[in-house]
């Protein structure tokens, strides 16, 4: 799959967030989006997912033999966006449905979270645990394109290493775009850097 | 304050007010104006073994509960539909304003003409409860976190799961708070309607007879019965909803029900 963005513009009132942005990406590669706060990273991800409409410009998704397709997205949003009253297992199973059994979801979650946290409502988890649940949820659902908005917020160095290995394993072959503030993430992910 | 004190405080306060009541009855010394708790209790003991007592309770319970449950189901359905279709919400707004502002007595007289006295309590309980459930359903659904709905859209979560995991936890606290008010109101308005319409074998008829015969002891006994049945029905229904809330996972109860 290939993505081509040309002359993308987006503004909120008088505030021009994206101004003639161009980008090309393809499946099987990881891209890191960097830029100062307010430079339009989140807006770009939201426009790509169809949650915001661009003012002008073009976004074209192409697949082999299919000139124009709508890809299946998966995402780690800027906020965790978990159903707070439900456990990490329930949060993941809400999006995976019957594709994975409860035992499989539990096994995947234990790679990132302590076992005891899996049966607790998300509201009672620490910020880092919630973030890891959100990451796991995004990686276990079927998708073509993975968009992550500052996924490593609230994670210590060791956990970040574990999470990055997990992301690389689970997203192999897919198109991955990760917004981050830390230059070292680019190297750890073996990603191509995109500056906004 | 230790736990021992807390356990005894409430019964002691209740005993204090019963004593004040009995004292007032002794001082007034007129059983038509005020009967004491002892006389009211005796009147209740005389009523309990009679067939009419249980028949009246059964009749009013069935009618008022039916009115409440119908209004609960209709309020949920209409609230859900109004959330989904904003035009319907605008369409229903004048009717609901009307329902909220028309006095129950006017409804009762209209209902007597339309449906007769037999199903009066069903009709009145329905009309009083419907706007409360509707408003709280709508408010609960509107309190749903739009960010969670965006998440559900991106992850292609099917509608049933969206309802269970996102809408229901937002809706239940509002519904629970609304039902607490509506359950009490259904009994107050239902029995008031029966007093005006005097359907056969109803609690309202018994209250009316107490008025005709100036039998204040019976009036107090029946009032006590209404309070007990209303409280039992309220507890049973709220326990059911709370069970759903625990299962469905709402974390907190809405601070205030939406007033109607």
Question: Summary?
Answer:
The complex is a heterodimer of chains A (196) and B (260). With 196 residues, chain A is α/β, with parallel strands linked by helices.
What does this structure look like?
- The complex is a heterodimer of chains A (196) and B (260).
- Chain A is built from six helices and eight strands.
- Chain A is of the alpha/beta class and 196 residues long.
- Chain A has a domain of 61 residues.
- A five-stranded parallel β-sheet of chain A has the order 5-6-7-3-8, with helices on both faces.
- In chain A, strand 1 and strand 2 form a beta hairpin.
- In chain A, helix 2 crosses helix 3 and helix 2 packs parallel to helix 4.
- With 260 residues, chain B is mainly alpha-helical.
- Chain B has two domains: 30 residues; 214 residues, MetI-like (MetI-like fold).
- Chain B contains ten helices and no strands.
- The longest helix of chain B has 39 residues.
- Classes of the chains: A alpha/beta (196), B mainly alpha (260).
Helix and strand arrangement:
The complex is a heterodimer of chains A (196) and B (260).
Chain A: E1 2-12, E2 15-26, E3 30-34, H1 41-49, E4 56-62, E5 73-76, H2 88-96, H3 102-109, H4 127-140, E6 145-149, H5 157-170, E7 175-179, H6 183-189, E8 192-195
Parallel strand pairs in A: 3-7, 3-8, 5-6, 6-7
Antiparallel strand pairs in A: 1-2, 1-4
Helix pairs in contact in A: 2-3, 2-4
Chain B: H1 3-28, H2 37-47, H3 51-84, H4 86-101, H5 104-115, H6 120-142, H7 146-154, H8 159-197, H9 203-212, H10 216-248
Helix pairs in contact in B: 2-10, 3-4, 3-6, 3-8, 3-9, 5-6, 5-8, 6-8, 8-9, 8-10, 9-10
Question: Characteristics of this structure?
Answer:
heterodimer; A: 196 residues; alpha/beta; five-stranded parallel beta sheet; 31% helix; globular; B: 260 residues; mainly alpha; MetI-like fold; 2 domains; 10 helices; 82% helix
Helix-strand topology string of chain B: HHHHHHHHHH
Report how far apart the termini of chain B are. 39 Å
Q: Name the helix and strand elements of chain A from N-terminus to C-terminus, one letter apiece.
A: EEEHEEHHHEHEHE
CATH class of the largest domain in chain B: Mainly Alpha
Class per helix and strand makeup of chain A: alpha/beta
Sketch the major β-sheet of chain A. Answer: 5 strands, parallel
Q: What is the rounded Rg of chain B?
A: 22 Å
Percentage of β-strand residues of chain B: under 5%
Judging from the principal axes of the Cα atoms, what is the shape of chain A? globular
CATH architecture of the largest domain in chain B: Orthogonal Bundle
Strand order in the largest sheet of chain A: 5-6-7-3-8
């Amino acid at each position: 799959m290939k993505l081509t963005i040309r002359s993308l513009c987006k503004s909120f009132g008088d505030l021009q967030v994206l101004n003639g942005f161009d980008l090309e990406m393809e499946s099987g590669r990881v891209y890191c989006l960097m830029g100062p706060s307010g430079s339009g990273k989140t807006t770009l991800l939201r426009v790509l997912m169809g949650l915001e409409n661009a003012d002008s410009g073009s976004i074209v998704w192409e697949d082999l033999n299919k000139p124009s397709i709508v890809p299946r997205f998966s995402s780690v949003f800027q906020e965790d966006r978990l159903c707070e009253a439900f456990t990490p297992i329930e949060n993941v199973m809400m999006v995976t449905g019957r594709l994975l059994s409860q035992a499989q979801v539990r096994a995947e979650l234990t790679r990132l979270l302590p076992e005891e946290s899996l049966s607790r409502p998300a509201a009672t988890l620490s910020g880092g645990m919630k973030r890891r649940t959100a990451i796991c949820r995004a990686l276990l659902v079927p998708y073509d394109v993975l968009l992550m908005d500052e996924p490593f917020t609230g994670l210590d160095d060791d956990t970040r290493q574990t999470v990055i290995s997990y992301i690389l394993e689970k997203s192999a072959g897919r198109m991955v775009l990760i917004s981050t503030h830390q230059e070292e993430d680019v190297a750890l992910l073996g990603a191509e850097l995109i500056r906004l | 304050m230790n736990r021992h004190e807390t356990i005894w405080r409430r019964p002691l306060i209740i005993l204090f007010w019963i004593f004040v009541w009995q004292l007032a009855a002794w001082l007034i010394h007129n059983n038509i104006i005020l009967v004491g708790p002892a006389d009211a209790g005796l009147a209740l003991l005389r009523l309990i073994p009679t067939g009419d007592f249980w028949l009246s309770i059964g009749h009013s319970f069935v009618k008022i509960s039916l009115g409440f449950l119908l209004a609960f189901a209709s309020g949920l359905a209409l609230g859900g539909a109004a959330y989904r279709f904003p035009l319907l919400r605008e369409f229903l707004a004048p009717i609901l304003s009307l329902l909220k502002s028309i006095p129950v007595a006017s409804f009762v007289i209209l209902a007597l003409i339309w449906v007769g006295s037999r199903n009066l309590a069903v009709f009145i309980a329905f009309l009083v409860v419907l706007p409360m459930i509707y408003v709280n359903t709508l408010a609960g659904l509107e309190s749903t976190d739009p960010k969670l709905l965006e998440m559900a859209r991106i992850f292609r979560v099917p509608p049933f799961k969206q309802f269970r995991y996102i809408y229901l936890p937002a809706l239940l606290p509002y519904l629970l708070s609304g039902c607490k008010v509506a359950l009490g109101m259904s009994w107050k308005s239902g029995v008031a309607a029966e007093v005006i319409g005097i359907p056969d074998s109803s609690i309202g008829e018994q209250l009316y007879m107490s008025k005709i015969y100036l039998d204040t002891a019976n009036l107090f006994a029946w009032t006590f019965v209404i309070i007990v049945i209303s409280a039992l029905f309220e507890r049973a229904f709220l326990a059911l909803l709370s069970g759903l809330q625990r299962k469905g996972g709402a974390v907190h109860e809405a601070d205030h029900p939406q007033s109607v």
